[in-house]
Description:
Elements (H helix, E strand, L loop, with lengths): L3 H20 L4 H6 L4 H31 L4 H9 L4 H30 L3 H18 L1 H30 L3 H6 L7 H13 L15 H26 L12 H9 L2 H36 L6 H18 L4 H36 L1
Helix pairs in contact: 1-7, 1-10, 1-12, 3-9, 3-10, 3-14, 5-6, 5-12, 5-13, 5-14, 6-12, 6-13, 7-10, 7-12, 9-14, 12-13
Amino acid sequence: MVSMFKxxxxxxxxxxxICIAGGYGTGRExxxxxxxxxxxxxxxxxxxxxxxxxxxxxxxxxxxxxMAQSYDYRKFLKLLMGRGWFLYEISYFFTVILVLAVVTAAxxxxxxxxxxxxxxxxxxxxxxxxxxxxxxxxxxxEGVMSIWSSVLYxxxxxxxxxxxxxxxxxxxxxxxxTADSKGWFFSGFxxxxxxxxxxxxxxxxxxxIETRRDAMLAGFLTGPIFIVPAVLxxxxxxxxxxxxxxxxxxxxxxxxxxxxxxxxxxxxxxxVGTFIETGSGMIHAxxxxxxxxxxxxxxxxxxxxxxxxxxxxxxxAWLMSRYGMIDLIAVGYGxxxxxxxxxxxxxxxxxxxxxxxxxxx
Length: 361
């Protein structure tokens, strides 16, 4: 029998690992989708619509994948969307390039500021590490992602605790500040939709789910597993509101003010590992989709070709990263959130629920 960890927790941890670099790794994403509506409105947006969209959507997706044994996104989306499945593939390709561009832009800056390593060298090192993980395949990726999540939680909890010790007395002042809080619910829904868009990409980690109960519990846990570190990070930013709104990399601002060298080093190491996880997980999903198509044609995708595909995508993302992180997140993420609300979230919450209920009948 498969362990409870793999059945219930592994999907959420893999989802978190793939999403976090583009979801809240730099803090800029939390500013764009939440903190701009004020500390109270932003926190509500994180806790209610964002968490619910991710949890409910994951429950539906995991159960559909289990019922149909559809663990690569092409098979899954054909089941969900029929002939319109290719719309997701187009959006997903742009998502991969956009997220990797944000990651590449951030990693060069972080490695340069913290360790004095040239930005280009930091970016190239990241590309090679991602290509290596993709070359090795599913088992190593699952193992790395599940282990690194514990490191991630430790670092985010440390930032939260250090911030509360240093600036806890300013927290109530931050939450007391008035702001234009209209729109926090819909913005949280958009953020949840954008994050949920990567659920089809992590279905390779749901093969251990055995029953409907497993699928429901694993899906329900996916939302909190992903959101809890974001909430800790969000609260750590509140004492610096509204000055932090204009910072391109808010986490750098928080760490500089805390002035704890060990925590700054720990965060950079954690974030580099998380960026590697995100890149390898997203590209692995593309490779699995290509491998599935080749398998249907009686062919196979070699490890060498998997690595070459990864290098090609990462090179394209590196070229795109020169546009700047603020513009990439504000414009690119906003447009993709709208597209996923239409082409994935709406079908999942209608057709997906109907298919699950029909199977029951």
